[in-house]
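tool=predict chain=A
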Amino acid sequence: MKSAKWMLPVMLFLMSGLMVAQSLTSSHVVAQVPFDFMVSNKIIPAGECVVQAVDGNILAIRNFDARKSALVTSSRSGASNGDSTVLVFKRYGSQYFLSEIRLEGSTLTYRLPQSRAEAEMRAQNVPATQQILLASLQ
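tool=predict ok
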């Protein structure tokens, strides 16, 4: 009987964790990006961009109007505040690099690896700033 008391809270906890982990798998993030940016050594033009999990940590970033897309392997962390869905870019001079995707109502953050071009900018000690764009989880 003692274990039966704990079974419901444990199951609810596990179910909520699964829902958070599946949030980008079962839906997608949409944002109007006002600038060209790089991800996975590819340039994605400005416009409406859609991010969706393809398989596990593999994300597809697409601009359907420009017919450009990129696949990237991300890593997940629990550092997001979860207040809103955002795309986080690093800006070096006039170049933007997609670095994170934070999901509303979730502690999950998808972190994207640094591209070769971004690594070169960092090696040249170009100062970086962070640009955060609101997105919607659909």
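The longest strand covers residues 47-55. The helical segments are 2-21, 116-123.
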